[in-house]
Amino acid sequence: MEDDLGLATVEQPAQLAALAYESLHRSILSGRLKVGSLHNEMKLARELGISRTPVREALLELASRGLVEILPRKGIRVKLFTEKDVHEVFQIREIMEVGLIESVVRQGCAGRLSDLEAALEQQQSEADKGNHQGFLTADRLFHSTLCQLADNNRLSAILENLRDLIHVMGAEALLQQGRFNEVVAEHREICQYLKMGNAEEARGAVVRHLLRSKNAVLEQYRQHHTITEDSR
């Protein structure tokens, strides 16, 4: 059953905090709980059909992952990122993803790109349909598949932990006119250089992709949100 905020009602008595986390997490990633929106813990508990304690535990976990902010005497706000947040996340991405792409080329990836190409074609299909959520899912799959090619479990785990922030931070930016197809073209360029085994060009393609993505995020936030140097 779905409530007004699109939260799936929690009905199982066991592991309520985990179930509340999954419901809230899913609603944040889907955009049902919008960036910057303010919520009341008691109301969330009522809509989930459980007590406040497991909801509070779930919110603390979401806060630890940077997805919500707990504001004393105000409530819970879905994280509204500052300009500093955006720069930091993309700086981390560049450091890690450039290293990742170099590792993939060193290992010889030309014959191992079928899954990455399939993810790219799925993304193109979602772009053609104008399916925002489908495109986000395919985008996440593309980057996860790229991580798998590097065969570095620790690096993959670090990037996967960052993936939710990337997802929420970049979701609105993808609504900009033509951005779907721009992202697909940027990903296609990365694939092309990986096929060629050209580490330098692949690295450059990743850096350009991240710079364009960061600029799109900043532009979207400046147009639709109050973005500051740091509000924390």
Characterization of this structure:
68% of the residues lie in helices and 4% in strands. The protein is mainly alpha-helical and 232 residues long. It folds into two domains: 16-78, Arc Repressor Mutant, subunit A (Orthogonal Bundle); 83-224, Four Helix Bundle (Hemerythrin (Met), subunit A). The two termini are 36 Å apart.
What's the quick description here?
With 232 residues, the protein is mainly alpha-helical.
Number of helices: 9
Distance, first to last CA = 36 Å
Overall pLDDT, averaged?
89
What characterizes the major β-sheet?
3 strands, antiparallel
GO molecular function: DNA binding; DNA-binding transcription factor activity
Protein name: Transcriptional regulator
Domain HTH gntR-type: 14-81
Organism: Desulfomonile tiedjei (strain ATCC 49306 / DSM 6799 / DCB-1)
Which descriptors apply to this entry?
three-stranded antiparallel sheet; 2 domains; Four Helix Bundle (Hemerythrin (Met), subunit A); mainly alpha; 232 residues; elongated; 9 helices; 3 strands
Sequence-ordered SSE layout with sheet pairings:
Elements: H1 16-30, E1 38-39, H2 41-48, H3 52-64, E2 68-71, E3 75-78, H4 83-106, H5 114-129, H6 132-150, H7 153-171, H8 179-196, H9 199-224
Antiparallel strand pairs: 1-3, 2-3
Helix pairs in contact: 1-3, 2-3, 4-6, 4-7, 4-9, 5-6, 5-8, 6-7, 8-9
